[in-house]
Amino acid sequence: MTMNRQTMWLVTMLTVMVVLSAYYIVTGPDQPAGTAIQNIDEMGNLKNDQVQVDIKSLEKPATVKQEISEASDYFVSYHMQRNTTREKELEKHYQVLMNPTSSKQELETANAKIEEMNKLDKAETALEEQIRESGFRDVVVIQENNHVNIIVQSKDLPRKKAVEIITMAQKHMQVSASQISVAYKA
């Protein structure tokens, strides 16, 4: 009975998290905050001229109403897909933790994976918030196999903004610039 209650609690909390995330994504910030381009110092970090930026649009031109609707749907679906994938992985690790026949090593591995996934989720969320504050309506950050994919909602993406996003990603995700891809969707 306790395991069933814990499972229900976990599913309820994950559902609440998904609903609140979707709500925030749909509503978004009212006014983007302005930020300055951050140049990195001599401590081994990045400067604007050290990054090769290839800017790619993920969409063809469309009408304004269609554009807003499709862009919102696009970002909401990416967030939902990421959250669903994470929830499935977390569920798998929680089942290992709740299994009384699991070995000590399996328990430690599952616990480490859960902590790693929670840390990754917090880093992605913090990076998305910072990018939104820099003037983008919406953004999705997905890290897979030590590669970070960032897609921002914008009609275009100037090189300076792309470098700024890469710099933010380096700080939050602790990966090199060569492991970061930035794209935009209008």
From TrEMBL:
Chain ranges passing through the membrane: 7-26
Pfam family, one: SpoIIIAH
Coiled-coil ranges from the UniProt annotation: 104-133
Gene3D superfamilies according to UniProt: Stage III sporulation protein AH-like (1.10.287.4300)
Record's keyword annotation contains DNA repair: no
Organism superkingdom: Bacteria
Source taxonomy: Bacteria, Bacillati, Bacillota, Bacilli, Bacillales
Alphabetized UniProt keyword annotations: Coiled coil, Membrane, Transmembrane, Transmembrane helix
InterPro entries in the cross-refs: SpoIIIAH, SpoIIIAH_sf
Full protein name: Stage III sporulation protein AH
